[in-house]
Structure formats: C-alpha cells, structure tokens
Amino acid sequence: MKLHAYWPLAALLTPALALAGMNDDPVLTKLDVKQLEGAYRDGDTRLAWNIEGWLGTDLHKLVLTSEGARLDGRSEEQELRLFYRRAIAPYWDLQLGWHHAPLAERRDDRALLGINGTAPGYLETEFNLLMGPGTDLSAELSVEREIRLTRQWVLSPEVGLTAHNFSDPEEHQGSGLADLDLELRLAWEVRPDLAPYVGVTWERKLGDSADLARASGHDVEETYWRLGVSFWF
Amino acid sequence: MSKDTTLPAPSRRRFVQGLALGGLATGLGLHARPLLAATPAATAHPVLSGTEFNLDIGHQVVNFTGTDTLATTVNGSLPAPILRWREGDRVRLNVRNTLDTDSSIHWHGIILPTDMDGVPGLSFDGIAPGETFTYEFDVQQNGTYWYHSHSGFQEQTGLYGAIIIDPKEPEPFSYDRDYVLMLSDWSDTPPERVYANLKKMSHYYNRRERTLADDLIPEAQQDGWGAALSRRQMWEKMRMSDRDISDVTGYTYTFLMNGQTPASGWTGLFSPGEKVRLRVINAAAMTFFDLRIPGLSMTVVACDGQYVEPVRVGEFRIGVAETIDIIVEPIEHKAYSLFAQAIDRSGYAHGHLTPDPALSATPPAMDPAPELTHMDMGMAMSSGDHGAHGGHAMPTQHGHAGHDMPTADSGMQHGGHLGVRGEHAAMPHQGMAMPMAQSHADHGMTGHSMGQHTMNQGAQDAHASHGMASSNGHGMSHGNTHSASQGRSHGQAHTDAPTYKGHPLSAGMPVHADSEYGPHVDMRAEAPEYRLDDPGVGLRNNGRKVLTYADLRSLHPTPDTREPGREIELHLTGNMSRYMWSLNGIRYADADPIHLNYGERVRITLVNDTMMPHPVHLHGMWSDLETGDATHLPRKHTLVVQPGARLSYLVTADAKGEWAFHCHLLYHMMGMFRKVVVS
C-alpha cells in the first residue's frame, strides 16, 4: 500500500476492487454529467453537453472531459481534454495534459496547464492555459458559485473569460480578451446526484475577436435558453 | 443485588431463532414475526450465555425502510445475539463465516491476548469464507461491552452485538430490570457506495447546508443584512460549513434501537417503582446519539463497562463505540420515551419504556440542529461572533462574570477569524495557559478537574478551583478529590516511579508536524483546549444537566499510580472536502507503528484538528482519561475528542503484541488508524 505514496500513478493501474479491507484511498471513478441540455436560440435547439469523467484516488486523477454542441446532427463546437489532475493544496488541484478541438483548423491539439479548485467564498474556479503551436497561448477562466435558495432549489451563476495572444481571423479569435460568457442555471436538486435545471446564457465576443466576427458577418452576442439535467455517479 | 432481570441467562441458543429484525415490525407485512408478536418485545432478542458459543456470520434479508436489503448478521439476528459471560470464566467462541468474503469479530473493550482480538492483519488473518475460528480467552473484567466485525464495512451492515459480563463481586448498585439499548445506524445503500459518495461529494449526506430562504433571509430580517452576512463570512472564507456535523446522516440512515426502527419502537417493560438498568451501547457506524428520557433523570453508573461514581443527568451524548450504563426509576404508570437523537438532528432512534405493552410513548420534538462555533474549530472565541454564539462559546457556565477573558478578547480580535488557517498564531490561550499552570503549581499541581475549568475560563483567580466545584454542579462527584495527599497515598505502592499527581490539563500551543501540511489536511486547531466539561455542540446550555467527561470519576482508585514516563501526541487530521482522514497528517497505509515499551505508563494526548468529534479506540489496554483527578481516573476503551479540542489519557502497556488504535467512525477508520506494538 505504501506504493501509492511514492508512485501515485501505480494507484491508477490497480484494479478497482480496493474498497474491501483497509484501503482508505481506493481507486474510484466518477462520471459527472455537469450539463446535458437543449440550448434554444432563434428557433433552433442545439444539444449541448459538458461531461467530466475521472479515474483516480484522493490526490491523483486521470480526467477526460468533453464539451460541445450539435445542431441538426452536425457538431458546432467540440472540445476534448485528457489530463492528469493532482492535488496541490487542500482546495486546489493542478491539471496537466492535452486539449483537443477536432473542429479547429489550426490549434486542434494543444497542451493544457491549469489549476482547479475552490476559492474562499465557495467559488468553484478553474483557470487553464492552452499552449501551442509555437508560442500561441490562450487563457480561460471560469468562476462558478452555487447559491442554495432552499433545500432543493439551487441557483448557479457562472462567469467565463477567454483571452489569446494571437489573432486568427478564420476562427474569429483576436488577440487580447476574446470571449465573455455569463451563465445562470436554476436547478431542482432531486438528489445530491441528480438535478434537472433551466438556464440562460449570454456569450459575447470582445475586442479584436468581436471585430473579426463582425467583419465576417457573424453575431458577436448570443443568448441561449437552456433546459437540461445534471447527474453523476 | 437483586436482579429480576429481563436479560435472563437462558441455556445457550434458546432464543437463537428469535430474530429481532426490527424492520419486520414496521407493518409492511413483508415477513411474519411470530415470536415477537407473542412475547414482550424486550425479551425477544436472543441472549446466549455460558462459556461456549457458536456464532455463525451470514447474510439475512432485513427490511427497515420498506425495501428488502441484505444485512450481515450473527445467527440470523440483527443486532447479533447478546452474549452473557461471567467474570472469571474462560469463554470459547466458535465463529463460523458463511459469507463469501473474509470476516472477523472483535470484542470491543475486552482485555485479552492479542491473537484473540479479532483484527485482521494485526491479531490474525481474519476468518476466510467457510472457515471457523475459535476465540478462547479468560474473562478478566465485568460490565457492558460489545462486539463487531473488524472486516470491511460489515459493521455498518449489521454485524454488531452486546456483551454483558456478570461480575464476580456484587455490583455497587441495585436494580430490578436490566435492558440493553443498542443504538445503531442502518442504510439500504451499500457502505462501499456510501464511502464512494463521500469521496466524490463530501457533503452528499448533509442536507442542512445553509440556504437563502431558510437561513439568510430570516436572519437578515431579524438582525440586518450586515450582521447576517458577516456571520457567514468566516465560514465562507474557510470554505467550510458550520452545519457540517455528521458525514452520514438521516438522509440515508434509519436509526435503530435494539434493531428496531422508531416506527416499530423497541419496548422495555417496567413496574412503577422499579429500578431499571439500561446498558446503552452505541454500535453505530457513524452516528453520535444524544439520549434522554423525558420525565426521568438518569443515574450514570458505568461508562465503557467500568463503574463510575454515580452521576445524575438529564441527558448524555454517547460517542460511537462507547457504552454508558444508567439506572432510572420510573414511578408513574405511563410510557416513557427512550429518545436518542442523532447529533445532527437528522433523525433519532426511539423506544418505549412502559409498564404496559399497550401503552406507548410519543417521541419529543427534536432539538434545533446544532451549529459549530469557533471553539469547535479549535479557534479561540471570536469577538465578532459573540452575538451569534453567545454562551455557546463558553465551555462552562459557572457564572464567573468576572472572568470574561480580557486577554482572550483582545487576542481574538486579531486572531479569531483567520487563525485556523495558520496565518495567525492565536495567542490568547497560550497566554492563558501560563498563569494557569502557575496557579496550580502553587497548589502543588494537584490538577483536579477544576484545573480545566480554570483553564477554560482563563481564570486569573487563583482560588477559583475551590469555589467552582459546587457552582458548576459537579461538586458531588469531585468534592473530595482535591488534595494532592490522596494521590500520594495511592502512589505509595509504587515506590520505583514518581507518583501521578493529576494532570494540570494545561493546553500549550500545539505543534503541528510538517506532515500536517498539504492537500490532505484542511485545518489545524490553533488553540485546542481541554474541554472535558463541554457537553459538546448542540447540548450547551440546553437547560438540562448533560453528562460530560468532567463528571466521570472512577469508583475504584486508579490501578497504576505512576506518573507517565513520556507523552505521545497525536493529531486527528483530515480534509473534509476530499474526505481524507489521517493521524498527524499520515494515513495508516503510510504510517509507522507506534511503539510502546512493555510495562510502561504513557500519556497519549490527542488534538482534534477537525470540525467533528472523533471516538478514538485503543485495543487491548485501558485508557485512563485524565480529568485532572489524581486518584480516580475513569477507565475507558473509547474516548471522544471534541472538535478543535484536546484530551489526554494514560495507558499502561501491559499487553504484549500488536494492537489497533483508531477512530471508530467507520468511514474514517481506514485512514485514522495506527498499529500499536507493545514489546
């Protein structure tokens, strides 16, 4: 058992039978469907999702996430991340791995380095740097907080920001602050692991990114109404 | 002593078929229950007595909630049969494992050879499927104990039962009836799943987190938004919840009394005027209970199987794995409610003490759910929170208005809020500890229990110790224990070592080891005090006399009167949000054993760096709780360390071998565990 302390990844390879006996730190898996929703805008309803799965122990996890949206059987956005998440402080984890955007022309595979955790005030905070190719760098920050209205009604406001150090007209990505994302979801927590919700989100392109979008005749601002469910096991 | 007892000593296995499966009585009609229907419930529980016992561990379908679930039982019974031994006998217990996984039985609190202790990996290899292991040992003690599986999570699923050992010598009290009240917590969710849920979402079972509608808005309307919000602020900053009382709650648990749900209601009979002995055993996996019997005062006569000077109380908290024997004298011809609330008030176990099976008692309303205070965080009181917590923060209410801690208050204004994160060295208690120790030095360091009162109060009054005995109501039990000379007289038997003169219970600043820093530990107590006289969160100032550890005084003199040769300090540590538990920040899997020299007398000091009470159990040897008394330390096998507090006890390492030492909360145990080697 001491092996775990010195060779953390060995823990990931041991079979997940470890719950028996005196193992305080068994290898567990969690599939966290954070959002699985219909996103409605201008008469169209997209299917959107944000799913995180992990395999690991208290301090070391292998994480796979998928986020995206589809409309009429066609993917509009898609992101896959595969990374190692390691606890570095009581409330903070370090993330290191790979970011994949299959629909991107360039920068479809990038390195990911970030931190994830709970800031004082129960602010669920995630900050990632996406790196490559070359010196291209994107930064993304999201902060979310649950506000428990009653035992079962939970309101979750979330703010997201992205920024780039490069400009890519085709992807409508401009240097500097690029996207602002405000989201609000109201969930009915049926159980701690099951909560249907309604939500509204507002996304806006900023700065150069907004100019690039406008120049090619795209919207710089989009509002979606969302209806979905979150669950985990 | 008369014992027209309801725990007869029938020939072995006579009642084995009398399944006390409480769920069967919930009126769901899933199973017939012939024996209970025909017999007063109290006698229905199987009792095995004699010197040879056959115990079969197996599975049994139970139904406590309306859903059939598989329990782990002994001889098909949940709780397992009551075992009745006699002090001085040699008992043989043939334990057959019919499960398809390893099993074991540990005899909790029983002094026996290490290879009979039943801890897989330490005492033996466990009992493999299909095998029978025979335990055999001399019964060297008497009183109320219990037994349970020490394998996996089998204890959660029902493998626990009571042990009653009849004494050789007459008992120092009399009674007419004798009942076991075994409290436990049952979940239909498999324990592996409960544990995984806690790892994935530590507050999964806490359904009492603060909400806007139920808490903040009403408070704001009452006290203003500024006050309501600032009260939240500290907890929010710390990313902790003052409503985090129990890890696993009534959200999944059904609380049982002798295997009966509150709905089925275990029933014990009495005739008005009789003295009834209740042997309360907390066999829960995770739940502390607060027990009272509205309309009756209870006289505590034994704790963890050992006689104590009788203490009359209106209520007591029983930690997981503790046992408390009480005697009650119901006079009226009416049913009394045996009411055991879970510490977080998420539910209760309930039974009836009634002169007539047709009469049943209605449980009272549960008390308000408790909220943690700064003190429970191991912080000094925060001046900013006086309004919110008022008297709570004071461990005791002696009415010593003059002692309102000028130093403490000023210190707290700086250190109060953030001290727990380690940025501030909250000074006040250190500052207080010093003059305290001095004032006791003047009194020959007698260190009776008042010492700790003095401490907690920050009493500058050097005479306080004498005045306090009566003013806090413990006078009865402590009144004659103050003089150091008494301690000496007992110590004369041991001329080779300095005589124990009591412990001043002074709380110096804790030193937190490097291993306590990192992602696996979320807080460290900055000012952990001895709080033996603190009834604990949710019981302070509730208008009832609540038993505290400061009330416990052994009926017999402390057998080993040597001054301890050394001290081992252990910190109970964890990270609640990651659901990791450890001692000194080191989990069992990574820890070196604790070594005790055979024969030595050692002080073990526990500092609770977490926000919840932990019941700590040392196998194989008694733990003599240091109450400040010099001569009559209560002997215990399980000691509850309150959140943010410290306590110490003395152990005589008189049992060679490898012993377990651990937190008895089932989902903490795997991390908060040490092997103790005596050689």
UniProtKB/TrEMBL annotation, chain A:
Source organism superkingdom: Bacteria
Keywords for this protein: Signal
Span of the signal peptide: 1-20
InterPro entries noted in UniProt: Cu-R_B_prcur
UniProt keyword annotation of Signal present: yes
Protein name according to UniProt: Copper resistance protein B
UniProtKB/TrEMBL annotation, chain B:
Claim: Oxidoreductase is one of the keywords in the record: yes
InterPro entries linked to this entry: Cu-oxidase-like_N, Cu-oxidase_2nd, Cu-oxidase_C, Cu-oxidase_fam, Cu-R_CopA, Cu_oxidase_CS, CuRO_2_CopA, CuRO_3_CopA
Composition bias type Polar residues, residue spans: 449-459, 468-489
Annotated spans, Disordered: 382-403, 436-517
Domain Plastocyanin-like: 62-169, 231-341, 563-678
Keywords attached to this entry: Copper, Metal-binding, Oxidoreductase
UniProt entry tagged with the keyword tRNA processing: no
Pfam families: Cu-oxidase, Cu-oxidase_2, Cu-oxidase_3
Record protein name field: Copper resistance system multicopper oxidase
Species per Swiss-Prot/TrEMBL record: Marinobacterium weihaiense
